[in-house]
């Protein structure tokens, strides 16, 4: 986990890519605060759902 923000968390994957995990994608139930689930520095598994035309 690279950075936690109010609306989600930014993760680094493949060494050079950063991506956003939106707060609504963190768990199957409602999450009040991102830090209730994850914190900066945590190591997590993620699944890439989409990449936009800018490679983000």
TrEMBL record:
SMART domains: S1 (SM00316)
The family this protein is said to belong to: Belongs to the bacterial ribosomal protein bS1 family.
Biological processes per GO annotation: translation
Keywords: Ribonucleoprotein, Ribosomal protein
GO cellular component, one term: cytosolic small ribosomal subunit
Organism encoding this protein: Tistrella mobilis
Protein name as it appears in the record: S1 motif domain-containing protein
Keyword Ribosomal protein: yes
GO molecular function: mRNA binding; structural constituent of ribosome
S1 motif domain span: 1-56
Pfam families listed in its UniProt record: S1
């Amino acid at each position: 986990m690279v950075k936690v923000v109010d609306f989600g968390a930014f993760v680094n994957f493949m060494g050079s890519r950063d991506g956003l995990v939106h707060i609504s994608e963190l768990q199957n139930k409602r999450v009040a605060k991102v830090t209730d689930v994850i914190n900066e520095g945590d190591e997590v598994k993620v699944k890439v759902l989409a990449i936009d035309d800018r490679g983000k």
